[in-house]
């Protein structure tokens, strides 16, 4: 169904999650539409969503039972106007999964950090990877 009208799907998807008007302009939207207008891209996206509600949970549970932890430092970023921060304590969640330091913060945006707050994302990456 998505493949019949990727433009409609993407516009609906972005409108629902984008909290910064104009962050995804016509040029960006056209590139998303171009990239998403092929079956392999649509299949991969749907598989990613499916895995998050299925096999990813099983793999996470197996890692927890085996006490497997992430070994490298983590920087978590999320949108303050999105759904992640209000639903979860992001840093506490990642700290449970990590044996290494976990840092991060909410940025003043919705779901699409790289489009809504690109300079903030770059600053965070440069600071983290220093």
Structure notes:
It contains 8 helices and 2 strands. Helix 1 (6-17) packs across helix 2. It is mainly α. The mean pLDDT is 93. It has helices at 6-17, 26-36, 39-52, 55-65, 84-87, 90-97, 113-116, 118-129; strands at 74-79, 102-107. A two-stranded parallel sheet has the order 1-2. 58% of the residues lie in helices and 9% in strands.
Secondary structure: number of strands: 2
Would you identify the regions where 5 or more consecutive residues have pLDDT less than 50?
none
Order of helices and strands: HHHHEHHEHH
Q: Please work out how many helical segments DSSP would assign.
A: 8
Numbering strands along the chain, what is their spatial order in the largest sheet?
A: 1-2
Keywords:
130 residues; two-stranded parallel ribbon; 8 helices; mainly alpha
Give the secondary structure arrangement, pairings included.
Blueprint: H1 6-17, H2 26-36, H3 39-52, H4 55-65, E1 74-79, H5 84-87, H6 90-97, E2 102-107, H7 113-116, H8 118-129
How would you briefly describe this protein structure?
This protein is 58% helix and 9% strand. The protein has 130 residues and is mainly alpha-helical. Helix 1 packs across helix 2 (26-36).
